[in-house]
Amino acid sequence: MAETPLAPKGPLAARRVLQLPLVDGFLWVVRISAVVVIVVGAYNSLTSGRLSGQQWRDLIVFGIAQGSIYGLIALGYSMVYGVLRFINFAHGEVFMIGAMTGYYVSSALSGTALWRSAPFAGLFVVLLCCMTMSALVALGLERIAYRPLRGKPRLIPFITAIGASFFLQYTVATLFGVDVKAYPAVPVLDGSISVGGFRILRVHLLVIVAAVVMMIALYFYIEKTRAGRAMRAVAEDQETARLMGIDVDRTIARVFAVGGAMAGAAGLLFGLVFQNVNFFSGFLPGIKAFTSAVLGGIGNILGAMVGGLTLGSVESLGPSLVLSGLDIPAAHQLKDVVAFSALVLVLIFRPTGILGERVGGERG
Amino acid sequence: MALLEIRGLTKVFGGVRAITELDLDVADGEVVSIIGPNGAGKTTVFNIVTGMISPDDGTITFDGTNIVGLRPSQIIQLGIARTFQNVRLFPEMTVRENVMVARHCRTRAGVVGAILRTPSFRREEADTRRRAEEALAFFGTRLVGWRFDTPARSLSYANRRRLEIARAMAAEPKLLFLDEPTAGMNPRETQELTELIRRIRDETGVPVALIEHDMRVVKGVSERVVVLDHGQKIAEGPYREVARDERVIEAYLGRKATA
Amino acid sequence: MADQIVPTDAPVGAGAGLLPAQGVSARRAVTLGLVAGVVAVFVSANGMVSEFAERDVIAELSLGVLWVLMIPLIVGSLAGQAPAVLQGFAAPRPGWRNPAGGALAGLLAAVVMAAFILLIDAVNVRDVLINVRPDLVETEPRLLTFGQGVGAGVALVLAVYAALGALGGALHLLPDRWRRAVVAGVVWLIVMGVLSSLVSQVLRGIQSTTNIWTAPLADALYQGGALTAPAAAVVFVVGAGLYLLLTRPRRTPARVRVRRLPDRSQRIVRVATLAVALLLLGLLPQVLGPFLSDVLNFAGIFLLMALGLNIVVGFAGLLDLGYVAFFAVGAYTAAVLTSPQSSLGVGWIFWAAIPFVVLAAAVAGLLVGTPVLRMRGDYLAIVTLGFGEIARLLFLSDWLKPIFGGAQGIIRVGDVPLAPGVEAGGAQPRLFFYVVFTFVLLAAYISYALQDSRIGRAWMAMREDELVAETMGVNIVAAKLWAFVIGAILAGFGGALFAAKVGSVFPHSFEVIVSITVLVLIIVGGIASVPGVVVGALILVGLPEILREFEEYRFLLYGALLIFMMVRRPEGFIPNTRRVTELHEQELQQDAWLRAKETE
């Protein structure tokens, strides 16, 4: 059998070359050009010395603060995906509602004695309100829009989630108005402090600390408590979990509530950093948080944070580091293009993420 | 030279050897049964040959061409068509359309032709339709007439299995793979299908390789039986010999294959 | 066989039918009533009621009040309905429970509403809920309390809602066919009332174009934009009567009767129908007048996109959320080539730009389609969404401003020349209609032609089971890319027409919401169904343009519709003959024991 031709012959051979390899070739071109663009741009910016070391550090800190917020939102996507294998497209709106709640509650509190005498206690009250409100909205979503569709093909709940997303956006827009709401000032958070020689805005520090604390709390909740164990069991295998006596419906509702609460907290932090919020504020952070979740490995709690921090930094550094280096004018306008490009590239080339939870295969 | 020659086929799934150094031939005009306990790697062999998964090692030569690395759509064009263990039809398409899809590899009408309704497009479309109906007519009256236009999901289980075979045959294969064609059928239907496999070979001359658990079917149709266990070939030969083989009996854990 | 079971919404236990058939459930009525109350409060608080109060529908009854009153009526009808039973089992006999259930639900809705009325009367909520206007309760016309003060108003609300709920429930006392006739009559009434401007314009337009004496009918029907009371009665009777007439027993549907004719006659009937339809459509812009023609053109452009997306999502099962990118590419290509003030400044005529629109859209389709070949479902959707946003942001950016004009966009896009000296643009909506119409016809023809062809079958097979389709010889790469390219070209046409109609292009016309709108059109109409898409586009895009007060609530309604459709009717209102597996449970997959073996 040694004389068996090893390569296919004739027109088929030509088609074999033409079919996938062409696509693969195209993808390789995309990959290589992405790398080239990044390297050339970064080299040019770094050698040009357009920004000082301090400015770079500021960008990094800002990226981390922003990334922590993305990470907190990403948790909701990740947890829901882990349990139900579907993208809760409306999660960005849950976040926005948290930010809105933060605005109304903090405005109401801003004149009170509590706000002046114990600002952190005041903020804590606001935080609890945001988390509760977002968790309630997430629960309502699950009950009304998603639960009836459990077990349907994945696109059905996904399209429902798109509908829910716009419904929530315009509910807020029509009930509370479309104008941009400015958060009240929080004097304690003004200015910056120095941590180990690193100058850092107080509000950024608060965001990072809060996010880290919440991450750790969530980690223990999922790893160490009964409810967390039930969540992991349901994520692993719903049917078996049900047979083992776990109330699957309640566990799933709890996943939504916890994810929603995290998004609500992120909403408040977002409001404190960016000072304003309107009905459309949830869309972009939502998409970016989803990118973070995928980037870190969707379904993976730690991955959400890693992905968030990575994306936050990429988005913060990308325009100045890469695009300015390529002599693109007004590179900061393209901040979102960088984020979306990251989304597209990650989903195409590494859908399993950095910390890689198994997603592809049958489920993919 | 046999029509299909598999040499040294190896496939590892996450450290588990699904197929080890397998050699297997299918010659023109014969019916080969592949049997073996669950998990022996029978379906994996089909999946590799039809290009759904790629092997780790080995060569597969079909009709003088090495087909390793080709895409499934190219392999059916070369002439290997298959059915699936868990019937996989296009449930929302009609019976006729299901079969017409399989004509895809024998037709070439493009988008422009379809939009302009060129004469060659019309001719090919009519031909596709006719051949699909012919393939369905192979099963007598079960899948013809008003059934042409019913969605595949509304068929009974046995009819779905038949439709799947019709679909594979409409591709004018040179080799037909049937994955447990009688699973889930009652004895009468099984008997009928056994008859049908024989007819396929006798009337169209297409050789058939089938995976089967029902020993009556295996005995009834196959010239040759190949027994797999743990991804390895443990016996090969006519049914009578294989059924007496010690290793085969052992593989089935003493559950002697009854005639 | 299991699949013979008639689909019902009944809980499994109730459906078993071994228990005596259940009547109206009080618990269900309570739940429904509370939900209805929340909905009523919601539409009051978000300003819909006040906004709609401007438009009188029937005599003095405004759309805003009607909007609120419909809620107890509908919920009464739902609550007064006995749960569905399996076919073959006797349905519970109608009785006093039906109106009682409805009344209970209506009453509970009224309680919620009354609480809201008392709240806004006592507290000033307007700082937070900005759309709670004084005309709801405090000042005339006191929409929620029917013109009364708070005390009398609350009592009236309780009484009216309960009565309407009972009326809704009492509908179930009627025999099935009669009940549907009543509903049909009410629908006619509302449609004729709400669309008064459209209907009277059409009636006047018919008179002025064909000299058929129809305008007086408009005067008889409407007074000050609302149906007069006697006219309302006539409309109701005609609507119900038409329904009864069309559903009378043993009436053979026209389609069946045509099919019984010999082949030759069949062809004649078909050609004649087509000719009449074309003639009517040709007269349409004259009948509709400039404003309504403009609305129709707008809907037509969306329809064009919807037909394109229908190929991608409906036929091929690829959920594309970045579809607006192709629309933008078409619009910008047309604008750059036809505007004398663009970066190229060539100022070609529209038709010369069309081949380049096709080319640019096709290239864009390939660029988006190629990287996502291996993706499915929701990941595909998100990536395409990303592409759509990238495209918009690039068009908006200062970086590409020299070419696309950044936020200032491109102005003075050329009109569409129809004949020497005759140009159709946004200012000549009646002429422009023919341009849009031609493209829509082309798109519809392409959809039909491809549906029943080799590539159409490949798409459907791929949508249902990609792996098996490939094993059966379908070249997945080619099929997916063709779907993207054809969808992109149709959207590109839409974009070019949009640019010509508006006369300019700005990046803010190409936001995600456009993609979502188009998705809503095809899902509500009926995915993969061309007639469904047509009706969906005309109603969902056209109506908010005619009823400007809907504009603000358009996306709210779209979102609600998407949720409702997915939960209740994933196949759409005018479904394709075959339902879409991608969106449906594969009820009849394999027997469970076979599935267990799959692991081998």
From TrEMBL, chain A:
GO cellular component: plasma membrane
GO MF annotation, one: L-phenylalanine transmembrane transporter activity
UniProt-listed InterPro entries: ABC_transp_permease, BCAA_transport_permease
GO annotation terms (biological process): D-alanine transmembrane transport; L-alanine transport; L-isoleucine import across plasma membrane
Pfam family, one: BPD_transp_2
Protein name: Branched-chain amino acid ABC transporter permease
Organism this protein belongs to: Jiangella aurantiaca
Membrane topology: Multi-pass membrane protein
Tagged with keyword Cytoplasm: no
Membrane-spanning intervals of the chain: 25-47, 59-82, 121-141, 153-178, 198-222, 252-274, 294-314
Keywords: Amino-acid transport, Cell inner membrane, Cell membrane, Membrane, Transmembrane, Transmembrane helix, Transport
Main location: membrane
Family, similarity comment: Belongs to the binding-protein-dependent transport system permease family. LivHM subfamily.
Subcellular location: Cell membrane
Automatic annotation (TrEMBL), chain B:
Keywords in alphabetical order: ATP-binding, Nucleotide-binding, Transport
Domain of life where this protein originates: Bacteria
Domain ABC transporter, residue spans: 4-255
Pfam families membership: ABC_tran (PF00005), BCA_ABC_TP_C (PF12399)
GO CC, one annotated term: plasma membrane
InterPro entries in UniProt: AAA+_ATPase (IPR003593), ABC_AA/LPS_Transport (IPR051120), ABC_transporter-like_ATP-bd (IPR003439), BCA_ABC_TP_C (IPR032823), P-loop_NTPase (IPR027417)
GO molecular function: ATP binding; ATP hydrolysis activity; L-isoleucine transmembrane transporter activity; L-phenylalanine transmembrane transporter activity; L-valine transmembrane transporter activity
Keyword Ubl conjugation: no
GO biological process, any: L-valine import across plasma membrane
Matching SMART domains: AAA
CDD domains named among the record's database cross-references: ABC_Mj1267_LivG_branched
Protein name: ABC transporter ATP-binding protein
Species, as recorded: Jiangella aurantiaca
TrEMBL record, chain C:
Main localisation: membrane
Single GO MF descriptor: branched-chain amino acid transmembrane transporter activity
Subcellular location field: Cell membrane
Keyword Lipoprotein: no
Pfam families recorded: BPD_transp_2 (PF02653)
CDD domains attached to this UniProt entry: TM_PBP1_LivM_like
Keywords on record: Cell membrane, Membrane, Transmembrane, Transmembrane helix
Record's GO cellular component terms: plasma membrane
Superkingdom of origin: Bacteria
Membrane spanning stretches: 29-49, 61-79, 100-120, 150-174, 181-200, 220-246, 267-289, 295-316, 323-342, 348-367, 379-396, 431-450, 481-500, 512-541
Membrane topology field: Multi-pass membrane protein
Keyword Cell membrane: yes
Cross-referenced InterPro entries: ABC_transp_permease, LivM-like
Official protein name in the record: Leucine/isoleucine/valine transporter permease subunit
Source species: Jiangella aurantiaca
